[in-house]
Amino acid sequence: MTELYSRRSFLAGVLTSGTLSAGAGYVLTRREPVDLVLATGNDPTGGRQLLVTMWNQLNPDVQIHTETVNSSTRDQYELFLRTKADIFNLDVIHIPRFADDERIVPITPLDGNPPLAAVSRLSQRAGRDDFWAIPFNTDVGMLYRRIADKRVADPEPKLADLLTTAPGQFAGQLDTVGPQTEEAFVVNVLEQALAQDDAILTEDGVLSFSLGQWRQALGPVAAAIKAGRVLDQAGEGSTTRVFQQSGLRYMRNWPVSFPAVERAERTKVSTAEIRLGGLPTGIIGGQSLAVSADSPHREEAEAAIRFLTGKSAQLLLTKYGFAPTGLDAYINQRLAESLPHLQDIRVAVESSRPRPMHKNYAAFARVFAEHTRALLQDGEQLTQRFISDIQQELG
């Protein structure tokens, strides 16, 4: 695999092409320096911070300071607002609440860099050309599989089949130990349900309220966990560790984990290759950059967002493992050569389903996790209370 762009080579390349230099010109006449605060979650890849560093090098009078906010689905809204930020790097599930409460303002993306349709619908204003937030990176559930011998045919399996045909060889985020692992659990449960019943969550993120449908869709995974055929982990980190330490064949995880997993596994004699494939229907995620309604520097914040989400920025983020938001990165020849699984990610993104895009999503996720964890971990059958509770939060 081709090594990542260095800071110097990437910056030199984009400056030569003129792609990023246009974003710097407008600040040259400023008389007073501006400090922009970017509230964001943690990024272990370093890709996001590299882009921020590039912006700061190009714009000495408009500097971005990153405030890392360690939050969960339940508390991101409250914790992000405490930072007094100019820019929010929002998990897409939080956009409806920030917009509904008028905490962010609309922003128009640059022409010629449209996100994929599945990505746009999470951030775009309904019936409008502008957005509540500009997509920074997208994400979608993927199936990792370990290849011991490339000479042996190894067709890509279906997620539903792994519950019965690969006992003890599949790990997923099908348990939770608190708010920090709750969202991974919700996403994995939805993907398992979709693998059994594609109609349980629509392309617009509308959930079925049929109790019988949910019982039938989650019955096979509950049985597999009870029989020990599936390794149910709490969170992405735990899933990755058990996949690597136990030499498992299969794991469900996000694309952003691939570079670190692939680097670690390529040194093992027992691993010829780690391949990435799509689920029957993955849940789409990602992050988008929004301008705070309270920012006194909206013009500068918008310019910074356009820089951080532009075509060249997308190329860099893709090399760091992020799933790109627009078509340009997916059809880039250099990226295709170094990241052969990129087309699998594109297909997975375009066929993905969103979680319910509702201002009360955090409350919905809490009650959804409570009921489904009781089913999968404690063997408690879903009741009509499950349906009434999620209806109440999404009503």
| Number of DSSP-assigned strands | 11
Radius of gyration: 21 Å
Order of helices and strands: HEHEHEHEHEEHEHHEHEHEEHHHHHHH
Coarse structural class: alpha/beta
Q: In percent, how much strand structure appears in the residues?
A: 15-25%
Protein name: Extracellular solute-binding protein
Pfam families: SBP_bac_1
InterPro entries: SBP
Detail the topology: elements first, then pairings.
Blueprint: H1 7-17, E1 34-40, H2 47-58, E2 62-68, H3 76-81, E3 87-91, H4 95-100, E4 104-105, H5 117-123, E5 134-140, E6 142-147, H6 159-165, E7 170-175, H7 179-196, H8 211-226, E8 231-234, H9 236-245, E9 250-253, H10 258-265, E10 273-278, E11 284-292, H11 298-308, H12 311-319, H13 327-330, H14 333-338, H15 342-350, H16 361-378, H17 384-394
Parallel strand pairs: 1-2, 1-3, 7-8, 7-9
Antiparallel strand pairs: 3-11, 4-11, 5-11, 6-9, 6-10
Structural write-up:
- This is Extracellular solute-binding protein.
- By secondary structure, the protein is of the alpha/beta class.
- The protein is built from 17 helices and eleven strands.
- It has helices at residues 7-17, 47-58, 76-81, 95-100, 117-123, 159-165, 179-196, 211-226, 236-245, 258-265, 298-308, 311-319, 327-330, 333-338, 342-350, 361-378, 384-394; strands spanning 34-40, 62-68, 87-91, 104-105, 134-140, 142-147, 170-175, 231-234, 250-253, 273-278, 284-292.
- Strands 1, 2, 3, 4, 5 and 11 form a six-stranded mixed β-sheet that branches. A five-stranded mixed β-sheet has the order 8-7-9-6-10, with helices on both faces.
- Helix 7 packs across helix 8 (211-226).
- It is globular and about 70 Å long.
- 45% of the residues are buried.
